[in-house]
Inverse folding.
RNA sequence: CGGGGUGUGGCGCAGCCCGGUAGCGCGCUUGCUUUGGGAGCAAGAUGUCGAGAGUUCGAAUCCCUCCACCCCGACCA
């Protein structure tokens, strides 16, 4: 390929609306151009990258035995009504009407269509298993498209769907896809990690996400270097830490201390010269679920921990954060100084599973078993400590009135008495704390030396509601967790029979009996991979593409191409030789100045560069420089082709 | 959808507060010189100042409405 016949249009400055590095570099290098929000044109240079990604995926899918096909982007809305997903999908589903007023959607995914195809075409167990896939344009009307191609509305996706006679066979294929995805991302030259994921709304039994590792990634990942445990932070279970010096620390007296202007736990800890882990933060939120609308909840987290909203939602149902005026009305204090002491707590022993975990952890069993016991939520049938059995634990010093008047003004008491009892959810790590610090429900004051069972009731609702932090014990009991960030580029699901059932996708088994097919679904965000690869590979000069997906593998940069006949001949001869050898080579015959050619190709991210100049040619040499090399190396003209083949691998 | 911000040649920005000739850098065109790290000089072209309505003798600038885009939240490959 010759640059003069190609289209190269680089920008010195990135458009100001491009925020993240991959978006900026893609625009600057001229890979993409924006048409509308979240909708991009792939310029010739960008398309080459996209096609290379696509081809690797295609090769590996074929190799795994999947069949490529192509389904329509426009789908009748009826199918979505039939699967029951139409109303639920909401405004993200772009709907339109044809001239006959028939309703259609632009496919955000293709479970419905493929299931429709298969139910018509596949009738017998003899035709199963089958795996169909396509690489096709999807449209999702994202609420907020952003980050260029990373969260576009229109994007290229590889979506595959497998159909099976049994769950065992689905699991076999799932494993095949896990390995296939691993091969794909390895071949793409990306640093990635497969993590356990939430099966979420799609349902099913097993699900893994494949993440490209990048500090700018939107997803937090937790993994254990000592085992193969890896999970999205949204999911990673936070075990109860062993209390430091458990049982030995003498109980301190509760004291109310002035902490003017110290609303955040960090400020309070610094002010009181106490470790952050000694503080408790209180988060007030209001549920919005159907069964408990408008219920005021107080969540207790250790000061150094952060709330995991997914876990919280699973525990409490839909919720929102309480507004300041609601907090003041219920607790009588501004946020920053609120706390669980002296409030009317709603007693609800029905959800004390977390407490059991804590108690198990405290019981003298082996570490291994303790860790194991905490991995899975114990079954609901497990006997739960009753109110009366817990009474013994509560210090007799507990005031008869739930409101210690020392800490509350008369007016506040009245307010609280009129307020319904507050549901308090205590994070596992808070449940094992002693002598902690929390807000006093009085602006400008905190309480120190607070203890459960004396200053406030033993927690009756303990749950895992925080994000894991680095160093937390791994849920598989095999070491400590590390954290990193990732960009989700692939997702595999065991769908089971959800869609097959809804769309009546059945087959006749060996006994001539009708059975519903088991389904798996496997997606890769092709477009997003390009953005993710750039997010992972870039420096101050531009993109650093892995050779496998670079728009060109090698660029020949001739010095003084127009005027020097020796250079021109040498450059063209090398170009032809490399091309014949099957190397994806670009010859920059634009006769630009050296500096601007170097800058262009470094911005574009071509991994290998050969400079042809009279200077080296005199001695029969060419100059080679890898994209990330600091120095160029001289290579004999005759050896260059073999040299590059070796580099490219 | 809620909160914040920005719209001025292709790109990056100034001008707006305090109304009066639309400006700078990059890019683009032509010529000459230059040619191993985004060249120099000279001459040029390119704007309904996001749209509409209003105030005013006069609006990029002030007021109103709308639109687009970006950032922060919930969704997802």
């Amino acid at each position: 390929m010759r640059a003069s016949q190609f289209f190269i249009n680089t920008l010195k400055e990135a458009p100001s609306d491009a925020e993240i590095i991959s978006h900026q570099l893609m625009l600057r290098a001229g890979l993409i151009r924006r048409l509308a929000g979240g909708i991009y044109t792939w310029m010739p240079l960008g398309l080459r990258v996209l096609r290379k990604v696509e081809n690797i995926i295609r090769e590996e899918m074929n190799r795994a035995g999947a069949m490529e096909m192509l389904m329509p982007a426009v789908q009748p809305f009826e199918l979505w009504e039939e699967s029951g997903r139409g109303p639920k999908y909401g405004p993200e589903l772009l709907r339109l009407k044809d001239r006959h007023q028939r309703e259609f959607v632009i496919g955000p995914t293709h479970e419905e269509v493929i299931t429709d195809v298969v139910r018509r075409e596949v009738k017998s167990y003899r035709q199963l298993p089958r795996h169909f896939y396509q690489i096709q344009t999807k449209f999702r009307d994202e609420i907020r498209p952003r980050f260029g191609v990373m969260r576009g509305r229109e994007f290229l996706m590889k979506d595959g769907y497998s159909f099976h006679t049994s769950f065992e066979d689905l699991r076999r294929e799932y494993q095949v896809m896990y390995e296939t995805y691993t091969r794909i991302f390895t071949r793409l030259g990306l640093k990635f990690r497969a993590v356990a994921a939430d099966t979420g709304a799609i349902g099913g039994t097993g699900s893994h996400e494949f993440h490209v590792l990048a500090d700018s990634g939107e997803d937090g990942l937790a993994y254990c270097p000592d085992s193969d445990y890896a999970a999205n932070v949204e999911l990673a279970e936070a075990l109860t830490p062993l209390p430091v010096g458990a049982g030995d620390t003498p109980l301190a007296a509760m004291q109310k201390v002035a902490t003017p202007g110290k609303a955040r736990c960090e400020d309070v800890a610094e002010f009181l010269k106490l470790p952050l882990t000694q503080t408790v933060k209180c988060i007030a939120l209001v549920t919005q679920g159907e069964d408990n609308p408008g219920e005021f909840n107080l969540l207790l987290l250790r000061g150094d921990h952060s709330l995991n909203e997914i876990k919280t939602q699973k525990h409490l149902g839909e919720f929102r954060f309480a507004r300041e005026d609601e907090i003041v009305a219920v607790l009588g204090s501004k946020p920053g100084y609120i706390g669980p002491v002296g409030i009317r707590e709603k007693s609800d022993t029905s959800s004390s599973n977390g407490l059991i975990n804590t108690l198990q952890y405290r019981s003298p069993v082996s570490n291994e078993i303790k860790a194991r016991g905490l991995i899975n939520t114990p079954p609901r049938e497990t006997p739960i400590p009753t109110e009366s059995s817990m009474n013994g634990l509560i210090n007799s010093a507990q005031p008869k009135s739930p409101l210690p008047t020392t800490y509350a003004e008369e007016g506040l008491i009245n307010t609280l008495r009129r307020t319904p009892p507050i549901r308090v959810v205590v994070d596992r790590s808070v449940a094992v704390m002693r002598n902690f610090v929390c807000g006093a429900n009085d602006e400008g004051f905190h309480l120190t030396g607070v203890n459960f069972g004396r200053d406030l009731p033993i927690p009756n609702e303990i749950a895992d509601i925080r994000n894991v932090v680095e160093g937390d014990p791994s849920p598989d009991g095999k070491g400590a967790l590390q954290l990193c960030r990732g960009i989700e580029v692939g997702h595999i699901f065991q769908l089971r029979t959800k869609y097959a059932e809804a769309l009546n996708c059945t087959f006749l088994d060996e006994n001539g009996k009708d059975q519903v097919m088991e389904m798996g679904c496997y997606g890769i965000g092709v477009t997003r991979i390009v953005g993710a690869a750039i997010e992972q590979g870039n420096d101050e000069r531009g993109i650093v593409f892995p050779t496998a997906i670079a728009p060109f593998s090698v660029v020949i940069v001739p010095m003084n191409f127009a005027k020097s006949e020796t250079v021109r001949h040498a450059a063209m001869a090398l170009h032809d030789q490399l091309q014949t050898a099957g190397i994806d080579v670009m010859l920059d015959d634009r006769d630009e100045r050296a500096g601007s050619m170097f800058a262009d190709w470094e911005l574009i991210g071509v991994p290998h560069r050969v400079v042809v100049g009279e200077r080296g040619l005199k001695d029969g040499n060419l100059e080679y420089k890898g994209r990330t090399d600091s120095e160029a190396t001289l290579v004999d003209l005759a050896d260059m082709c073999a040299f590059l083949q070796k580099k490219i691998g």
About this structure: The domain at 3-236+483-535 of chain A is CATH 3.30.930.10 (BirA Bifunctional Protein; domain 2).
